[in-house]
Amino acid sequence: MSRSSEFIPLNICVLTVSDTRTEANDTSGQALVDQLREAGHQLFARDLVPDDIYQIRARLSNWIAAPEPQVVLITGGTGFAGRDSTVEAVTPLFDKTVVGFGELFRQISFAEIGSSTIQSRATAGLANRTLIFCLPGSTGACKTAWGIIRDQLDARHQPCNFVGQLR
């Protein structure tokens, strides 16, 4: 368990996976940036890559290997459409999977979108002591996910949080 009486700002990267979005219209990525900054964390890097397994994996691998990033938030590419490949790109890199994240996300999401939540492949895991969250591409889904993630990135949150597991 990791508990602290002080808030510890984390270095967080945001990656948008999309074949159609640009920095100008990436509302989901921007929502994540806004929320992490509001919580007191630092945006370490932000990028946008096409929905391609190898481009996703290359960008993510560089962040995982670097000493500074502690958390990566990925939005997009988690559905069932033909090009949705974030989950396939990311999960082989996990040292451990945070199974409860996807379960809780779908439970909360059910109240918002009903049974369509079964098509969400939101997932999370730890790779080289970097916490990675794969979120749907919709802005609303990113806000829902942040409601779960926020407390787990706060060293003061009890009874446990992920801060002590990060480098």
TrEMBL record:
Keywords: Molybdenum cofactor biosynthesis. Residues 13-156 form the MoaB/Mog domain. CDD domains: MogA_MoaB (cd00886). Transmembrane segments: none annotated. Pathway: Cofactor biosynthesis; molybdopterin biosynthesis. SMART domains: MoCF_biosynth. Pfam families: MoCF_biosynth. May be involved in the biosynthesis of molybdopterin. NCBIfam families: moaB_proteo, molyb_syn. Belongs to the MoaB/Mog family. This is Molybdenum cofactor biosynthesis protein B.
